[in-house]
Specification:
Elements lengths: L1 H9 L3 E2 L12 E3 L5 E7 L8 H17 L5 E6 L9 E4 L2 E3 L2 H7 L10 E2 L3 E12 H4 L4 H18 L3 E6 L1 E14 L2 E10 L3 E5 L5 E8 L2 E8 L2 E9 L6 E8 L7 H9 L4
Parallel strand pairs: 1-12, 3-12
Antiparallel strand pairs: 2-3, 4-5, 4-9, 6-8, 7-8, 8-10, 10-11, 11-16, 13-14, 14-15, 15-16
Helix pairs in contact: 1-2
């Protein structure tokens, strides 16, 4: 189970008492047509992943953190724990402290960010991951295999156990985390983009309670757990299957009530 938990942490899909929200009842959220937009499941139901793959993914994640500059991406090939000869794409986020600059960058992407939420929590900064072009516009399988083979040879010839190929980042947001502050108190807003419903997995050892709400016609999930409270919902991007997911967390021990969390969300719903 420890490797399964590891892969969920690396992919940002595991919800624990310290890193996100969890739910006593494994709830789901639906749009106005009754279609699922977000579902929460126990970590045990996550599809099986080989230990080798988890070790490889963990290593390429570490390489990305160590070698990439802010706002860059690269394809990595590692020699160890890679019997399938596959590559992993890693990115470094772009940091923003100027909200108008970030809003201009995200213009047209149906992502809502505002200067202030709730009772005086103002925008402080944001960390934004943009989609690499090779993932946004996938190339043919033959080209993927050729790139992997080229990087494998480079890794062997260099004497290192890895090789990397820089790739361009698109302007499309993949995910972001924005911080809002009011004095010493902080609230985080996490926003992510998916091509369909999002599934999040919960560590079964977490104790929590969850309640589904309806706010201005939007279903939301309000969750209380040992580390704080959260509120999550999804918004559809017109003309397709893509969704924008929002999650607000109180990160300074405020333990907001349900009503307070809804007030934090109201301006993001406009």
């Amino acid at each position: 189970m420890k490797y399964k938990i590891g892969i969920l942490v690396m992919t940002g899909l595991l919800l624990t008492a310290s890193s996100g929200f969890a739910a006593v009842h494994y709830q789901s959220l639906n749009n106005k047509n009754g279609e699922t937009t977000l579902q929460v499941k126990p970590a045990a139901s996550f599809p099986a992943v080989k230990d080798e793959d988890i070790r490889r993914l963990d290593y390429t994640r570490q390489l990305g953190e160590q070698l990439l500059a802010e706002g860059t991406a690269a394809i990595f090939y590692v020699l160890h724990n890679n019997s399938g000869g596959v590559t992993d794409t890693r990115t470094k986020p772009v940091l923003y402290s100027d909200l108008p600059v970030l809003q201009a960058k995200l213009s047209g992407q149906k992502v809502t960010l505002v200067p202030e939420i709730g009772d005086g929590y103002t925008f402080d900064k944001a960390s934004v991951y943009f989609q690499p072009v090779n993932l946004l516009h996938p190339i043919a399988a033959e080209e993927v295999a050729a790139t992997a083979e080229k990087l494998r040879q480079q890794a062997e010839q260099s004497g290192k156990d890895y090789a990397m190929l820089p790739v361009e980042l698109s302007d499309q947001m993949q995910s972001l985390t924005a911080s809002y502050r009011k004095g010493d108190q902080k609230v985080s807003v996490h926003i992510s983009r998916t091509s369909g419903p999002m599934t999040q997995y919960v560590d079964e050892q977490v104790e929590f309670t969850a309640e589904k709400l309806s706010v201005s016609g939007t279903e939301m999930l309000y969750t209380r757990y040992a580390g704080g409270n959260s509120l999550a919902w999804s918004a559809e991007i017109p003309g397709g299957q893509e969704l924008i997911h929002y999650e607000i967390n109180d990160t300074s021990g405020q333990f907001f009530t349900k009503e307070e969390m809804v007030r934090l969300a109201e301006r993001l719903l406009r």
